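Q: How would the structure tokens look for this protein?
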Amino acid sequence: MVHIGNDWDKILAEDFASDYYANIRAFLKREYAQHTIYPSMYDIFNALKTTAYKDVNVVILGQDPYHGPGQAHGYAFSVRPGVQIPPSLVNIYKELHDELGIEIPQTGCLLGWAQQGVLLLNTALTVREASPNSHRDCGWTLLTDSIIRKLNLRDRPMVFMLWGANARAKTALITNPAHLVLTAPHPSPLSASRGFFGCGHFRKANEFLAKQDKPVRIDWAAL
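A: Here is the predicted structure in token form.
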């Protein structure tokens, strides 16, 4: 049984006890035995472990984990300290700099965002080495759909940043007018110039959160 260690355990209890999640587990058992899979099976739920349901201020939703050695560690777009910053994250940092004047960080580890209530989630939580989207249809979308639906039900406003086609497909799940939904192309080099650059999401998120009854400001420079 999955153990997150915070309120997600109760919120997702039915999902983790479901037939569809049993199918995911069986699939992953075969995949980890036969192929190189990222992230480590011990890191799959790091984003949920770090950012409790009650603490979510912003959801950044991407496609699936990095598929190269030593990169993915359970947080969308993040890599461990000391790992070369991937191109998608380089573009995220460029957008941050253009929007807010933040100096380009020297680390690709986004744990500081997660600790401020930024849920760094992908639509699929695992991937086969060198095969992007390879686990898209194993059942992860059912779980991440459920996560988004449950966040949508929360009264306290939050911001959803949906980047890329896989993430934008979840727009219909966010029906609560209390929340702000921002969509853009994926920040990868293949698509960033089609509307990710200039999207203004980081600025818009802080402007929205500052207007709430309990104002919040994400320090995007704090990594």
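The mean pLDDT is 97.

Strands lie at 37-38, 58-62, 118-122, 127-128, 159-163, 180-184.

Upvote if useful.
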